[in-house]
User: Fold this.
Amino acid sequence: MSQYLIRRVLIAIPTIFGITVLIFLAMRVLPGDPIAVISSETSGTFVLSPEQVAAARASLGLDKPYYVQYLQWMGDVAQGNLGESFWTREHIVDLILRRGPITAEIAIIAMVVSWILGVPAGIISAVNRDTWLDFFSRGLITVFLAIPSFWIGLIVVLIGVIMFDWRPPLTISYPWTDPIRNLEMVVGPGLALGVGLAAATARLVRSTVLEVMNDDYVRTARAKGLAEQSVLWGHVLKNAMLPVITFSGLAFSGLLGGTVATETAFGVPGLGTLLVQGLNSRDWMLVQNMVLLFGLIVTVTNLLVDLSYGWFDPRIRYQ
Amino acid sequence: MMKPTAQPTVEEVGTRMVLGPQPRRRSVGSALAGIVRFARLSPAGTISALFLILIALVAVFAPVLTPYDPLAGDYSITRHAPTLQHLMGTDDLGRDVLSRIIDGARITMLVSVTSTLIGGAIAFLWGVASGYLGGRFDMLSQRIIEVLMSFPTLILAMLLLISMNAGIQPVIIAIAVTQVPGATRIVRSAALTTRSLAYVDAARCLGASPIRIMLREIAPQCLAPFFVVLTLNLGSAVFAEAGLSFLGVGVPPPAPSWGNMLGGVLAASFRPSWWLVLFPGVAITLTVMAANLFGDALRDFLDPRLKQQVS
Assistant:
């Protein structure tokens, strides 16, 4: 196990290095650096003199060679210094710590919703294959796979405003300060993201259960006279759930991407809205470090999924 | 339960679709027979394909089909609920929503189709080369793909968009890039399987150059999984365009896209208009659903073995 663990962790290192390089290249080396975009004649918001441009570039360290800029950035990140917002001068670390819990809550709610709705739906669909129950749940799956979660968000808010005169709260409250307002804030986005994920989960559960039900050991279980219920609970589901764990881990990446648009639809002040604000105001330091954060979270999640898989399924370790 | 995942992974799908050498030329008759077979196998897939063709036609003939100018506002009827004159109502500037949905089909499909084709073309060449050549090139390619896959789609696209100016072209490029890693993996796995088939060895023994083998022997075998991926990617491109434009970093206004029509509709007033939220979302959902269903049907059609296992 320890060998597997070490090998898997080592593979993540070049990936993380690649992530930082890709972000750096996208932000600096692609034509048009942040200052050029801000002050561009066609689309910029500011008119700057050449001296002002030079000063602004120097203040961001953009006048130094690329490798120096890259190493400085890495050094700062290693020390936990993510710099400050270009416009508000707030420390990015503080911004992330303030908004992070909200996004984390939303992601957890979405995950839990996807299990509560998706797993039973998939099992029911598979067990009652080709009955009206199966067709019904497959229909729902098809529809919810195609609905953007941010649009569900818009619909929920729309109904809230028109019918109940309710809007999601705009200022941050935490579960430990104002639990009710906090729930008002996170339940909507969590549900909107969760149902889409539930559809994907249900589709996977359905196909894994169907596949496992055809396996030899399930036939053996039936042959020795076990009741259908015991076959399902004792033999089928145990093995059919393994891929679901992996899937949920990998779906986390899509979930994080989804929070960006869904938080914006609800106007919830999480990490997603922070990234959008940064992008729209060309706050490049913010964007650079936020994207790095998202990339790192996904990489670490993938790592954990792989490790947990080695834990659950001994065959993987010895490959 | 010998495989770690019961749902075939993308690689497995790619691998299973390699069918061995096939006749290169097909007559019109056999193509028609194929279409009939497809229609019989999957009515849902056929309806989806017809729907996609309909959307494509609407997109192409948008300038003729729009009842009003999609960009011209009429300030006497701003944010008017649907009426017989304006079937889907009007927006904040009094522009006809139906006309904007029709013209939006043009822009959304332009962005989605082009980015899918560009991303797909890169992925196809890269996947074939990576799978056939193997070795260091493949090793490095795999690492790069892992890096690209470490970002959620929308966030990768946003990262690419920040240093580009606003416009449709950057959006196409950004979405195309997000499509590359997944598609490359599938093509690569098909190429890997084909590489070890006997007829490829035969070509090599006859002295065919690697380029020739890749183009004439490997590439045709990768086409089936590639088309499936392309179809499914069309759906995710529509999704991505909608997300980016909704967030205000995609297709810039005033040109309508289904995504940017949804941007800011709730913030615009205390009493948001339901028709401004409903219709663009329905357009997105139907199109993505059609692309997904068609892609699934195409996969079942091209690989009957998969259909039997997980229908």
Summary: The mean pLDDT of chain A is 81.
